[in-house]
Design brief:
about 0% strand, mainly alpha
């Protein structure tokens, strides 16, 4: 194994570690939400520094590889894809942190009726499934598996699109100030969760790009 192969191997290892880290951050933020565990939410906020540190380390390694080894073909595609992927991973971490901030703003657990009406439980289940798929597809360079996140992201888009109307309906039938505020918080959490789906989709596109040399961005039908 030459020096370039060693560097690329370490880069992929660091990216996998960061992917697992942000997956864990999302898992903890979602668990904290459903259990109203504010200590766990604070742990997610504290761990955000690790996510940021991973981004800086991976950015530096990519710059090092480009400057010293002049990679070509799939090696170059992988480094270029890594620079984009690490940015999206960091944003997933940011949104996990954001979910916890809204949880900490609430004085009591969220109304189960509100969660059901806004389809948030369905949304979080899909995001966790997408993250599991992302981790496996990236570790194995499985582009067929990576493509499966696209249809799941469409469901997240649908939930997000209908969230305003669902919240308006909930507020019309509810005079409890705390529950109304929870509805507003949950709408923001839905927006953040939908963005996580977008970032997962972006990363999946980059996996396909570096493995198959196919650019899917801006295509109407990614399937």
């Amino acid at each position: 194994m030459n020096l370039l192969e060693t560097e690329l191997g370490e880069l992929k290892s660091e990216l996998i570690d960061m992917t697992l880290l942000v997956k864990e951050q999302m898992e903890k933020s979602i668990t904290a939400f459903y259990t109203f565990d504010q200590d766990l939410a604070k742990e997610v906020l504290k761990n955000e520094k690790r996510v940021n540190g991973s981004e800086l380390k991976i950015d530096s390694r990519c710059e090092h590889i480009l400057a010293l080894f002049n990679p070509v073909a799939i090696d170059l595609r992988f480094v270029v894809a890594s620079l984009k992927m690490v940015s999206d991973l960091e944003r997933i971490g940011d949104n996990a942190e954001g979910l916890c901030k809204f949880l900490l703003m609430s004085e009591k657990p969220f109304d189960p009726v509100l969660i059901e009406k806004m389809r948030f439980k369905e949304m979080t289940a899909i995001v966790l499934e997408m993250l599991n798929v992302l981790c496996e597809s990236f570790e194995t360079d499985n582009t067929k598996l990576a493509r499966t996140v696209f249809s799941k992201d469409e469901i997240l888009d649908e939930i997000n699109k209908n969230a305003n109307n669902m919240l308006a309906e909930y507020i019309r039938g509810n005079q409890d100030h705390e529950k109304v505020m929870q509805g507003i918080y949950l709408l923001s959490m839905i927006r953040k969760t939908e963005r996580v789906g977008d970032y997962i989709t972006n990363i999946s596109e980059e996996i396909i790009f570096y493995v198959k040399a196919k650019v899917l961005k801006h295509k109407k039908n990614k399937e």
